[in-house]
Amino acid sequence: MAWLRSMPVFPLLVLMFIVGAFVHESFLTFENVVSGILYQSSVLGVLVLGETFILISRRFDLSIESIVGVAPAAGIWLMMPTAQGGSGLGLNVAVGIILIFVVGAVVGLLNGFLVVKLRLNTFIITLAMLMLLRGVTLGITKGAMIFNLPPAVVFIGGARVGPIPVAVLLTLFLFIAGGMFLRYHRLGKAIYAMGGNEVAARAGGVRVERLRLGLFILSGVLAALAGLMLTGRTATVLPSQGANMVFSVMASAVIGGVSLNGGRGSMLGAYLGVLLIGTVQNILTLSSISSFWINAIFGGIIVVAVVMSKYTAQKR
Amino acid sequence: MSDDSKAAVPREHTEHEGAQTGSPSGGDLGGSRGAGARLAGKLRAIQFQDWILLPLVVLLFIVGAVASPSFLTQSNIINNIFHNSAVLGVVVVAESLILISGEFDLSVESTVALAPMLGVWMILPASAGGLGLGFSPYLAILIMLVVGAVIGTINGFFVIKLRLNSFIVTFALLLLLRGITLGITSGQSLSGLPKEIIYLGSATWLGLPVAVWVFVLLFIVADVFLKMHPKGRAIYALGGNPEAARATGINVNRLGWSVYVVAGVLAAMGGLMLTGRIASVTVDQGRNLILSVLAVAVLGGVSLDGGRGRMLNVLVATILLATITNLLQLLQMPAFWVDATYGGIIVVTLALQGAARARRQVVKVDYQRKCIARTGEAPPS
Asked: pTM here?
């Protein structure tokens, strides 16, 4: 299992599980692992999935956290009656849900156009998009949360198959699909190629611009899905939903071995990174540490994890 | 092969990045285009973004004066535009120094909270939520600056010594420091501060708030330092081409580390100014500041890849954004639309800058092709 050892996040994860078992007796229960860790980190997971594609292609997208807010907000606003904070247009629920994904795709397209076609600075453009969309979300929701949502909307985030939430299964499935795509499909390999050496990839026939544009659109759609899942889990649309998630997304990816310079990393690593972050958050919640210190400890652990992932990574 | 350890957020080394340097072309085609080509070359060499900002500010002032009677008043301009951007401006100077040196520091926004929080916490009596150590407020201010320096040292240690990715590490520090701020006071704000501490944020010299004096002077000092002082120029070299800088004898590690320390101190000072302004220390102060800071820096022409940026331009960019925010508020736009407009303006301005850059790139490639066609050689760069 050399490949497992080559991923520094794996021993970290094992360590966290041991720590967790000591911290609280209910840590190692099925209920906690599924609902406390997997379920709680499913939204982060879907975001990391999309972001990993973009990172490997040597770009990044900071606006995803705002898509988590604006996409569900837009779709649901169109569905709900004015009495509950909506537009009163009474859009059909199924159409509304599709619209949520369309919003994500459109934002991704816009990002992609500005970054890939106009060659503008990725960091600032996606950052500006983050701010802009956050403002739009606040505008749509008028700063208030929307609840009493139609059951279909809440399904992906809230329903369960037996004891296991749909969201957990969906996230797992997407990661496996994404991972296999990256590793085995022609386009997946092309993504690595253009992240590692764009000129060579272009010479080798990879349609770099088109592929990147597609990845931005994919990231937008996945972020919209994440937003829908979050809304389903909380059964509300919060005007601030998704805020500050982008940092956890980046941290998960980096800890999982995805290089910020592109060309390196795996979906498995990214998923383990998400699990690590989710486990740490779970342990902190279960522990009796004062909630005021949780943020500090979380930040401290990320520092340690980043240092460790740098120093234990084996060079390929 | 270098991995993600030292680089900041990915430097996009596309083939077209060469246009960033603004090729000073002109006149080298054997005189066949002569003076006209030289002038055109000089014009091309001037960065588009250098001369778009100031006219934009002037334009906005005109729009503001027409749109609202209260815009062009002394009180509005000094208090709402300049005073409101003082804290942002100080932190922007700090961050710009780091960016020019080729790195990132996301933790400055948390330093804006933690440094004043620690200083105040130490001297406030226990009844007001503090430690009650009761020493001089001036010592507390010194402690705040020292805390900023310590934070900068820690950042520098991780980024320069351990060669970790500055984006991720300083983000982790952002969380950690904010968390410590939260933990120390269990979420409480502290107020009832001694007047010495509030001074920077509230006093006036010759009719202008001290904060405005400080922030404008800081920009001027930073601009002059970067352009004239050898250490300042070394920072540009460090950000632009660290290997070449090292070869010139610059101690790149020490320089890079000191930039982090200075940035920490400046961020602490910004925090002190903010605390003075609101006459308290809150757990949330500075939250999300980093987004505006980075946006202003980039609008002002600071390259995220390092090595470029002029402080005076960044000052204009700070004023520009403050003016826009002020205009929108005077026109009574709801608060959340202000945020959206903020982001939108950045996108539009960058699109304009990007279009100009793309145009320069086309011109440059065209020039190179002509040179090769005529003389069989690549043009001197």
From this structure: 0.80
